[in-house]
Each structure stands twice: as C-alpha cells, then as structure tokens.
Amino acid sequence: MIISRAGLAEFLRGRRESLQPEDVGLPRGPRRRTAGLRREEVAALCHMSTDYYSRLERERGPQPSEQMIASIAQGLHLDLDERDHLFRLAGHQPPPRGADSEHVSPGLLRIFDRLGDTPAEIVTEVGDTLRQTAPAIALHGDATRYTGPARSRGYRWFTDPSERELRLPEDHAHMSRTYAAGLRSLLAMRGPGSRAAHLAELLLAESEEFRSLWEVHEVGIHLNEVKRYQHLEVGRLELNCQALVDPHQAHRLMVYTAVPGTESYEKLQMLAVIGTQSLSLTGRDAGDTATGDRS
C-alpha cells in the first residue's frame, strides 16, 4: 500500500481540531484560543515529539511505522473504523480486530481519563496491562513495562516470584487456581493458535505448579471480591475491584476502591498522593525525550 500524505495530513488535522482537552483528560487552561487540541498536546498523547507529529500534518517526513500509527490512533481516541482508515492512509494494512487487539475503545478511554486520582487499569483478557493511572502504578508497580509473555499478569504469577510479593501468602493458592482456570476457559473459547494457547503451552513447560493445576481441569474459579495486599509503603490494604468490560475488544477497565472510613481508605488516599508525586518527578527528570519514529 502507498501512503497518502495529503489524506493523512487532512485526517490528522480534522481529528485534532475536533477534540477538546477534556475529551482526552487534559486541563483546558484559562487562555485557550486553539480550535481543538494543540499539536504539542497530541504529540504528548501519542508519545512522540511535537516536530515529528507536526511534519505528518504538513505532509512531510518519512512514512510512519505501524507502531507510530497505532500510537497516533490511540492518542487521538479513534474508534476501530477510524483507526483502520488511518492505517490505510499511512500505507499500512490495519491490524486485526478481536480479542488480541490492543486498541482501547474511545468510550473506555474517556472513563479511564477521568480516574486520575483512583487506582485503575485497562487490561486484556489474558492480563496484559495496556493503561494504568498513577495511583495504580503506585499500587501494583508499572505493569506496562513488560514485554513478551511476561506482559500477562497470570504468566508472571507462575514464573516471577516477585509478582506474588504484593499479595498475602494465604491467598496465593486460590489465586493460582483462578489464573489456571481462567486460562483454560480462554483456551476453549479462543482455540489453538490464540494468545491463551501460547501462554498455556509456555506455562506447562515452565511451571510445575501450573502443570499440576492444569491437570485438574478446573473452570469457573474466580478471584475473591475483596483483594488483600501487603504494600511495601502503606502496609495492609483491603480493596474492592469493579470491572467494566468492553465486549468488542475483550478489554476490562479495573477500578480499585476501599470502603470510606476504613484504614484501607486512608491508605489508598496516601497511594494517590505517592502516585502523583512519582509521576511529577518522572516528568521533570525525563523532560521531552520523545524523538519520533524509533522503528
């Protein structure tokens, strides 16, 4: 496929000008005259330099990679039809839709963007973390940094001992059963060749505990409604987790809350502050390090 530079530039400008700061979780500011978002705001949302994004709107620069186009589609909160159109304009075949897609729907993103002071994360059906709020990073650590099969929280549970440090030892056995049963259900649903099948094959080869649980053929085992943590900085926490499911993309928005007036509620407030401070320090130290297309 051939890139349509004029079409790509026109589409990007149109989408940028149609979005307002509050649509993407940004503050409006007192002296705003720009119609829609500024180029530097879109560039930050897309994790690229302003210069690189600006060149695309001006029909200049090299052909953007599929990775960069996926980032732009997500940053501009495009739906799947708009995402696919953007890929074609950039000269690429659109990624497949369905359970393995990592493109988060605009509706789910709009809700997520309004949860900045709450531990919340968007995960795939196999436990890959796609988005985390700052308080969620303070609670769970940065789960978006993993690559390969380790992106799956269930895979890490059986292969990385550090994954269990946050959870109470007396809960470990039930959580192991839950992860194994959930993966078995996904494998039956998605079939051979799916991400679930690949993870099951890896875990059968790497984890004796997983192999013993797999042989039992359990399904329908669920995590406890109240999740118990032993956090390094704030200590014991008991949190409820509510999930909002996107049926088209098989993504879940997980929101962690505590009962008001409890000790866990106070500690969760502390974590929100810790997360905000960490995010501020990271931004101040890193500066504007985006350099555009890294492919």
From TrEMBL:
GO terms for molecular function: DNA binding. Residues 35-83 form the HTH cro/C1-type domain. CDD domains: HTH_XRE. Signal peptide: none annotated. InterPro entries: Cro/C1-type_HTH, Lambda_DNA-bd_dom_sf, MLTR_LBD. It comes from the Bacteria. This is Helix-turn-helix domain-containing protein. It comes from Geodermatophilus obscurus.
